[in-house]
Amino acid sequence: MKVVLSILTFGLLITSCKQDVVEQSPPEDLIEETLVESDATEIEFEEEEEQDIWTYIVFPEFTISVRNLDAWYDNDTHVVHESSDTVWLDLPMGLGEWMYNKEFTLDSGFDKVQLFEQLEYVVSIDSDRIMEVPFCALGELSDVSEWVEIQLDDEIWRFPEVEQEVDPDIEFTFEEFKDVVGNCGTGWKEEFDSVTRLEDLEYDLFLSCYYYKIVARNSITGATVTKIIAFLYPTHC
Question: 73 and 89 in contact (C-beta within 8 Å)?
Fold first, then answer.
């Protein structure tokens, strides 16, 4: 049995999604011509300031606005309407900024806000076959951490810079694994037919989702509203 918690799986996903690029050098005469023109004329470029992009998550009770959020929802729209208590957002492939240290606000009369974080881990397996992403996360075999409160600054509310440290422990039987491995797609169940007991199964524990619970209170009326933003870790190109 192998239980590994590392960034290697994520590196494998990024590598699998890359395409080979062949760089071609320009002709020598074009290089010489460009150098002559560069000596004759100096061109000044002004750096453009990056504009902040706000994502608005609209719940019936209030709207959560997040500055420069690096996450996806419905073709990258920046206005999300959610009628339930939980909104699901996809994190993009690559080492982006995601939700780390992103500023957020509430546009309502709730004057007290608490932020909590919870992490979900799932069992994951790798394939020796040649495919786009030789990796499968078994969402049926999972475990979540305890809710941990994130201390918010009085002036600017932000998501945490890094996630909490967790030592996950997912207990499952070999029969439970055999029941769900076929959900990975064609050929996965057959590939693991040679494994006959849990002790011989090679698997990892994969961080699949970040949950952030926002508890908003109105100190005058006593009203309390709880909403959850779930960020799904990328598992495919």
Answer: yes
- In angstroms, rounded to a whole number, what is the distance separating the alpha carbons of residues 70 and 64? 15
Residue 182: how many other CB atoms lie within 10 Å: 13
- Summary mean pLDDT of the chain: 83
Q: What is the DSSP letter of 109?
A: S
The answer to whether the beta carbons of residues 229 and 66 sit under 8 Å apart is no
Are 230 and 87 within 8 A, CB to CB? yes
Q: Is the pTM of this model over 0.90?
A: no
pLDDT at 97 over 80: yes
C-alpha distance from residue 15 to each of 77, 121, 131 (Å): 27, 22, 12
Quick one: tokens of 51? 């504009």
Residue 237 pLDDT > 60: no
Closest CA to 97 of 149, 158, 48, 144: 158
Determine which helix (DSSP H) or strand (DSSP E) holds 16, and give its type and residue range.
helix 8-17
- Strands ordered across the beta sheet of 79-81: 79-81, 54-58, 63-67, 103-106, 157-158
**Confidence class of residue 95 from pLDDT cuts 50, 70 and 90?**
low
The pLDDT of 199-217, averaged and rounded, is: 96
Which two structure tokens, joined as six digits, stand for 124?
């994951």
d(CA 28, CA 35): 11
Contact call for residues 143 and 99 (beta carbons, < 8 A): no
